[in-house]
Amino acid sequence: MAQLLYITPGAAIAVAALGAIYALGARRAGRALGRDRKIMFGWAMVALLLALGPMDAIGVGHRFFLVHMIEHFTLTLIVPPLLILATPDWMLRPWMLSRPLRPVLALLTKPLVAFLFFTLLFVGAHDPLILDAACHREALRIPIHLLFIVAGLVMWWPVMSPLPEFPPLSYPHQILYVFLLLIPMTAVAAPITLAHQVLYTWYMPAPHPLGLTPMEDQVLGGLFMWIVDGLFLMCVFSAIFFRWSQQEEGSQPGPGAPRRAQLRAVPTPHARV
Fold this sequence. Notes:
Layout: H1 9-29, H2 35-61, H3 65-86, H4 89-96, H5 102-108, H6 111-125, H7 128-136, H8 138-160, H9 171-180, H10 182-194, H11 214-251
């Protein structure tokens, strides 16, 4: 029970730093943050605390692979979109359009680059050698978790961008983009789920917190990534399609709307000879 309430010093420092940056950004701009944005930021901080605190303590400290994969799901698919929703364009614009950052961010937020950046990092971080090393060394695990959040922000940007200078994709392209995100999820989840042996030596020692074998725990973790991550993306896919259909319906004139007069060509009678 104590592990469920455990917050690491690193997690507390990360949340405090983000909160200070968020408040300072609003103060420097001299503008008030809306209630909805504050709520989104609060939820993002709660998710981050849970991921870097109890989930990491149980998933790594108690060698519970399923919980470790839930932590990665939270850091890539939950925290980044909440942060984007919580941050108004007027807070992002000064530093995103600054001279040193603008060319880098202009490249990173291109859909193809964002997709490849996320894919390479997400797939690479789940390589057995890298994940085992991160489980053994917290000094390596912390920057990997930070990269997960950064990669998540980059990955979500083409769908959720609040800045016209770095605009989001059109709705049809957003749907295609989100659908393609199933590729890196499957590329990681399928080998883990279908493996005939335990891939990560860190999770081999017994006993398991729930009495599962390391192989059973690995299959559960792989299935979580394969099914839950996929369902989450399909929900986003459906939400985008719904917004697109609403936009299309709004652009159509209603049944009672006056019709615009149409010009018709009137044939000119031929002159008699």
